[in-house]
UniProtKB/TrEMBL annotation:
PANTHER family tied to this protein: FATTY ACID REPRESSION MUTANT PROTEIN 2-RELATED
Entry annotated with the keyword Oxidoreductase: yes
Domain of life: Bacteria
Protein known as: Nitroreductase domain-containing protein
Subcellular location: Cytoplasm
GO terms of biological process kind: cellular response to oxidative stress
One MF annotation (Gene Ontology) recorded for this entry: oxidoreductase activity
């Protein structure tokens, strides 16, 4: 069975060699991210996903914050050089998307539907994961490379303070994106018999 969707998914890879050579308009990228997240499903249509799209120096500031906070916890100078090089690769991109969960909405649902209360935090994670996957694939369709990073909660307070973001938003991931300067390597898969079962 042919699937255009799966052909796009094959383009969605973790691209670490990114650059600023993106010809798409910033507003078009923002609108792509916005529409993609709006069309992504969430449990109870809770719409708990929040996103901030940053470009240029604002995007670089995210990675300045990451570097400064990691410097506080990495004592080994030699090891920190590797960390700096990794962060520099993210800073080299065209922009960064910050993904958040609107935590009060999760708590509101827990109170409104006590029978399912234990599930709403998990469902919110599923919602943001789906949104990230969808945005990542939508960017790949446009020839824009990205990867998903997780420096939260180490950077949470500084990010919210720097960009004047609501305290109740919980930072879940950071997605640096940009032009694809080098392709991803080959992708390896588990043995299918280990991963899948067909029961008919």
């Amino acid at each position: 069975m042919e699937s255009k969707f799966n052909e796009l998914q094959k383009k969605r890879r973790s691209i670490y060699a990114i650059g600023e050579n993106v010809t798409a308009d910033k507003n078009d990228i923002f609108n792509l991210v916005k529409t993609t997240i709006q069309q992504s499903p969430t449990a109870f249509h809770s719409q708990t996903v929040r996103a901030v799209v940053l470009f240029g120096e604002k995007s670089n500031k995210v990675w300045d914050i990451v570097e400064a906070n990691l410097r506080k916890v990495v004592d080994d100078d030699e090891a920190f050089k590797n960390t700096q090089a990794k962060i520099a690769s993210f800073r080299a991109g065209f922009g960064t998307i910050l993904y958040f969960t609107n935590t009060p909405k999760v708590h509101e649902l827990e109170e409104a539907f006590p029978l399912y209360a234990d599930n709403f935090a998990t469902w919110a994670e599923q919602g943001i994961g789906g949104a990230q996957q969808a945005v990542w694939t939508a960017l790949a369709e446009q020839g824009i490379g990205a990867s998903l990073q997780h420096y939260n909660p180490l950077i949470d307070n500084d990010i919210k303070k720097e960009f004047d973001l609501p305290a109740e938003w919980t930072l879940r991931a950071q997605m640096p994106f940009g032009s694809i300067e080098a392709p991803a390597g080959d992708k390896e898969f588990l043995d299918e018999a280990e991963q899948f079962k067909l029961i008919d």
